[in-house]
Design a protein that fits this description.
heterodimer; A: mainly alpha; MetI-like fold; 13 helices; 78% helix; B: mainly alpha; 9 helices; MetI-like_sf (chain B); membrane (chain B); MetI-like (chain B); ABC_transp_perm/SBD (chain B)
Chain lengths: 253, 229
Amino acid sequence: MSSTAGGGPQGCLAQNDWLCWTYVRTRQSELLDATVEHVWITALSVVIALALALPLAVAARRWRAARAPALGVTTILYTIPSLAMFALLLPVFGLSAAVVVTGLVLYSLTVLVRNILAGLDAVPGEARQAAEGMGYGPGRLLLEVELPLALPALLAGVRIATVTAVSLTTVGAIVGYGGLGNLIYDGMESYFKAQVLTASAICVVLAVVADLLLLWLQRMLTPWTRAGARKRAVRAPAAPSAAAAQDLVGKAG
Amino acid sequence: MGILTDVWTWLTTGSHWTGTGGVLQRLGEHIYLTGVCLLLSCALALPLALWLGHVGRGGALAVNLSNAGRAVPTFAVLVLLSMGPLGRYGDWATIVALVLFALPPLLTNAYTGVREADREVVEAARGMGMTGGQLLRQVELPLALPLIMTGVQTAAVQLVATATLAALPGGGGLGRLITAGFGNYDTPQVVAGALLVAALALLVERVLTLTERLLDPMRRQPAGRTKPV
């Protein structure tokens, strides 16, 4: 067993096969460390971006003049390719995880600001007027009426930002903080096929798992959006996030 | 402050621009790769998406493709393809990877554009006795043009970005200035290369936005797009 599947001359490691269970078994801790780094870089970036995007979107909504600059600047940032973004941040932070986290925060910010704005714009005027008529002040109106109604769009944005960040973290390998990207980079330099394929596969699994977890969270937090399958089917095409998400169909470079 | 001066010095040194591996050669490679792949991916995606939109099939495919495109890391695909059998044929591994990531925005936008063409106008055209082909060419295509152009723009920006990453497994393009800079611990070169890449990406985005406005037969804001004013 160990001579056919293990490290012997016929083993998959010696043969440099794409699929190699021995690699996964013997390098377990290395794979785990890389996955942990990948997860915290991604999670930290999206959390910071969310904390920045909420006040930005609310400000852009309250003061009309702030809207065009906020959207314009974030779009410009989004257009910059990831390798260039990390390279531009290098002199600021040196070879550190801050380069990758800052780059990912800037990308996530674009998606989140757009989606939160689209969600706030889609709040029905009647709901707002009813709340004002009941004596709600601007702060309470925002917290208790507008933000809850914008929540589905916000969470749709979080999903897009998270999946994108999982994929882009790999490019962080250029500064040595790419999580699974580090393994892909090293595997590329030493022509180690099993390492590249295994790390890439874990990366895709991470993205899918994160997406499903956030979808579940979205369902838990916004039970009213699935008050009936028929109603949802009617509302789905008009979901405020559809237009915003479409524009940013891919950020993979 | 020092780094900015160094970057400026790097960019204004003539020998960095000419010769093998100079900025001009890398810029040429970058534009060539982006252009060829944009043509290839449009030729593959647009007819298929227009037809699917016309007959009204494959909507789930159009949506799922862009989701899948987001979840798969471009860097991983570039490395996997360059280490696979395609890697032996020069630029082909890079070209295939670039085209793969340019397809989703093209397919999704063109499909949505045709599907969301005003149904009343389509019905009226059908009532006037237009055939399927006439309907697609004279009604649905012009109505879908703003969204198709949005897809082309997104794909082009994506291609510029992916072509940059192609430098990591050893492809050409401006990304090579960045990776070479990292290799030599030459931070001014890294930053100069990054500035050139960013400038090219923004330029491509601007040019295509203007083209989009000029080509739009109805001169209106494209539907389904939250365009910054």
